[in-house]
């Protein structure tokens, strides 16, 4: 891991936290294309804990073929970000500890305010980007976070990753996103955004779920 100096960059879109809005699929941020998928990935506490650990150690991003080149936790007190309830109302963060955890490679786990640099390709096209963790949630039955674009991406927007362990003992993995074209090619051919998003969703699921099968 290469550690750079923390820069207080802001994200490059206005609707921060909108992946948690209940009406995202019907009323996405202006010029954005929304997307949402949810998959049952197993049952029970062990499955929930394993999936949560994988998610917070960037397994979805790495499994999608993206290389994490720079992980910069927020400086000073932990930045807790913003979260929303099912009706889209802002709520207080569930966690604000300032201690950091690291994976076996020494990379910090997901934390609110962390900025990361990812490099990679999706369907032959660049997926390089600077991203910010908008919020991170760690609750007894819900774990997840959202990433927003800071710059250098072909799209501008946000994606959230949630692991839920429901009362019926089922564990579900949900990814929600909205993308607006930023790169010239994507502005000219907006259909590429949907193609890119479908491929990313498939890769995320493959990375997190041991029950993965290619969606029909």
User: What percentage of amino acids are in beta strands?
Assistant: 25-35%
Give the class from helix and strand content and strand pairing.
alpha+beta
Would you report the number of β strands? Answer: 11
Per DSSP, the total helix count is 4
Low-confidence stretches: 1-8, 77-81, 93-98
Estimate the global geometry from the Cα principal axes: globular
What Rg is obtained from the alpha carbons, in whole angstroms?
16 Å
Determine the mean pLDDT: 82
Share of helical residues: 10-25%
What distance lies between the first and last C-alpha atoms, to the nearest angstrom? 37 Å
Q: Any overview of this molecule?
A:
The chain is an alpha+beta fold. It contains 4 helices and 11 strands, in the order βααββββββββββαα. The protein has helices at residues 45-56, 59-63, 184-188, 191-208, and strands at residues 33-43, 67-72, 83-84, 90-91, 115-119, 121-122, 125-126, 129-139, 142-151, 155-165, 170-181. The protein is globular, with a radius of gyration of 16 Å.
Keywords:
two-stranded antiparallel sheet, about 35% strand, alpha+beta, globular, about 220 residues, 7-stranded antiparallel β-sheet
What's the structural blueprint in terms of helices and strands?
Blueprint: E1 33-43, H1 45-56, H2 59-63, E2 67-72, E3 83-84, E4 90-91, E5 115-119, E6 121-122, E7 125-126, E8 129-139, E9 142-151, E10 155-165, E11 170-181, H3 184-188, H4 191-208
Antiparallel strand pairs: 1-11, 2-5, 3-4, 5-8, 6-7, 8-9, 9-10, 10-11
């Amino acid at each position: 891991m290469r550690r750079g100096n923390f820069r207080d960059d802001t994200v490059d879109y206005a609707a921060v936290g909108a992946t948690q809005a209940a009406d995202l699929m019907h009323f996405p941020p202006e010029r954005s294309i929304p997307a949402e998928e949810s998959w049952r990935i197993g049952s029970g506490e062990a499955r929930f804990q394993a999936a949560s650990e994988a998610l917070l150690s960037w397994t979805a991003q790495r499994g999608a073929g993206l290389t994490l080149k720079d992980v910069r936790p927020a400086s000073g007190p932990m930045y807790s970000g913003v979260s929303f309830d099912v009706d889209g109302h802002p709520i207080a963060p569930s966690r604000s500890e300032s201690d950091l955890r690291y994976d076996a490679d020494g990379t910090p786990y997901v934390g609110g305010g962390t900025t990361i640099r990812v490099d990679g390709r999706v369907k032959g096209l660049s997926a390089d980007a600077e991203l910010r963790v908008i919020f991170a949630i760690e609750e007894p039955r819900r774990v997840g976070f959202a990433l927003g674009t800071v710059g250098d991406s072909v799209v501008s927007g946000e994606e959230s990753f949630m692991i839920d362990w429901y009362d019926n003992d089922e564990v579900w993995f949900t990814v929600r996103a909205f993308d607006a074209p930023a790169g010239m090619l994507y502005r000219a051919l907006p259909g590429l955004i949907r193609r890119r998003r479908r491929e990313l969703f498939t890769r995320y699921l493959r990375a997190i779920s041991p029950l993965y099968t290619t969606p029909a």
